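Format notes (please read before filing issues)

Several people have asked whether sequences and structure tokens are stored in separate files. They are not. Every record keeps both together, in the order shown below: the sequence lines, then the token lines. Line labels are part of the format and must not be stripped during preprocessing.
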Amino acid sequence: MSKATYTRLAALSLIWGSVFLWIKIAGYGFSPVQMVLIRLALGAVVILAIGYAKGLRLPREAATWGHLTVAALLGNAVPWTLYAEGEIAGSSSVAAVVNGSAPIWTLAAALLLGQEKKVSGFKAGGVLLGLGGTALIASPWNSTSAGTGWSILCFVLGSISFGASFAYMGKYLVGRGIPPLMLAGGQLGAATVLLLVAFPFLGLQAVTWRTDSVISVLVLGVVCTGFAALLNFELIIKDGPTVASTVTYLMTAVAVVLGAVVLSEPLGWTVWLGAVAVLAATGLLRRKPRPAAEPAAGATAEPAAGATAEPAAGATPEPTPGPASGAERGDGSGPASGGGSASKSGAASVSSAAAAE
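Then the structure lines:
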């Protein structure tokens, strides 16, 4: 890889890996709903401003906005609020590790939505390994485990919601000719409206005006939610999805290191072992089947008598469960220029980037 690739990869890993640190510090002054509302609004403004400057426009169809609202609920409003709530008493490092289990729930949701017709042995093993890793991190049998039962529950439920959002976007929003940058901005805008609705009921707590909390929530919105989505997209376009997908692993490591160094968060052996299990599970879930062997030069494959070249009834290509970063869904083809339609995988990668923890 080139020096520029390493620079982009390191920058995105550091930005997204620091998200959980900023959430923890922002929580010293803001309630979860207050924090998430500011983060969503700032992120939406950054992405939509850049999109409109490029001549792109938001979709107008009511059905599309209905799907965007559901995606915003599953991928932004619910998980971000739950992570912020969990980090009030819980560890930022544990939040990051549990967030890495999102591909497990993406696969489960894809099965429910009919996007996955079958589960390979590797994927089944990945699900079991990931569930085991999450159980180790929670360690309900251990009174000295990292975090309270409530904080762990918030992290797990947030990861389930976040993972399900990838499957939902893949089924209802990808491949519909929407510029991916505006898909991401529209989703953040819809999530902002959802938090505004919730604010009178859940967000009226008194704000503690602390410099570190104010800086943290601004960084969360402008940098980690707005500009990071653009950096992720650039990484996918210039370096390919395989390189970009490594952010999922690197950001988890960054989050754990920052939690230990900056916040002095203790990590027991169950968290370390659980983290290894979750990351290994993510690798298994991303494993793609080997391509069929190509025929020898000059040879042609003759179909068997009575056979046809049609796929089996109901068969569809297996989508790869998207990671927290959304990078795995990129195809490196780049965004549509001038508002043209984006590729199916490219659109999901940018929309997921806006939602990534």
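For reference, the curators noted about this record: The two ends are 25 Å apart (CA to CA). The chain has a mean pLDDT of 77.
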